[in-house]
Amino acid sequence: MSDTLRTPRTGLVAGSVLLAGMVAAQVASGLHPRPVGLTSVVVLLLAASSLALAASACSLPRAAAAFGCAAVIGYAAELLGTTTGVPFGAYRYTGVLQPQLAGVPVVVALAWAGMGLAAYAVAPGGGWTRVVTGAVALTAWDLFLDPQMLRLGLWVWEQEGPYRGVPLSNFAGWLAVSLLMMAAVHTVAGGIAGGTALVTLYTVMAVMETVGFAFVFEPPDPLIACFGGVGMGAFAVLAWRRRWRR
Q1: Of 147, 144, 146, 125, nearest to 135 (Cα)?
Q2: Are 104 and 93 within 8 A, CB to CB?
Q3: Rounded to whole angstroms, how far apart are CA atoms 100 and 82?
Q4: How many Å apart are CA 96 and CA 83, to the nearest integer?
Q5: Residue 193: CA atoms inside 13 Å, Cβ hemisphere, count?
Q6: At 84, is the secondary structure helix, strand, or coil?
Q7: Do residues 246 and 194 make contact, with C-beta atoms less than 8 angstroms apart?
Q8: Is the entire prediction scored with pTM above 0.85?
Q9: Using one digit for the tens of pLDDT, what is the confidence trace for 133-168?
Q10: Using one digit for the tens of pLDDT, what is the confidence trace for 226-238?
Q11: In whole angstroms, what is the distance from residue 166 CA to residue 198 CA?
């Protein structure tokens, strides 16, 4: 399919509806006494929304190719991590998230891909500078993600670290994997860099996670809300500032 066969309006409408659904699922998850049951729903809506919004910025084939590359890289990194401890540190998934492929939940790869496209869109700079800043923007998301998933019992670290039980090696691993993922996205679908809709997705995730840790989750965790909110919020603010200046 040619890049000229774009459906920006269709992708934008579909992505917006899916994004709204993700927000509703996240709110329900935050208020539910057993939120883990809605985790996969949130991730599926996140992934579908990201793909649709990316298609509105470039084309569906290019967006799908970038999403697929990111998902494969994310899955491969998790498989390597759970079997060797490289690059994140020694950890394992519990049986809570299903289905799993060789011990890695399928939705984890979808989460990598969904937020990977959004992180690339908010990243400042041009060319390969965007690859580096996009990797940092994606790693900033894990300031929220890992503590939240540990709370839900989705995975277990062999040795706990200083960041709410998360070892610092995890963030080094995230940065390395994110660099590879951003390089793939940049090569396949660099056009999504202009996608304001994906910036909205990243911003929504930053706001939802910050509010969740600050006020909704039990018990609240202002430290995680602060670190994650500043980390993701900085990229969101810079992205919107660039667009308002145009």
Answers
A1: 125
A2: yes
A3: 12
A4: 18
A5: 21
A6: helix
A7: no
A8: yes
A9: 999 999 999 999 999 999 999 999 999 999 999 999
A10: 999 999 999 999 9
A11: 28
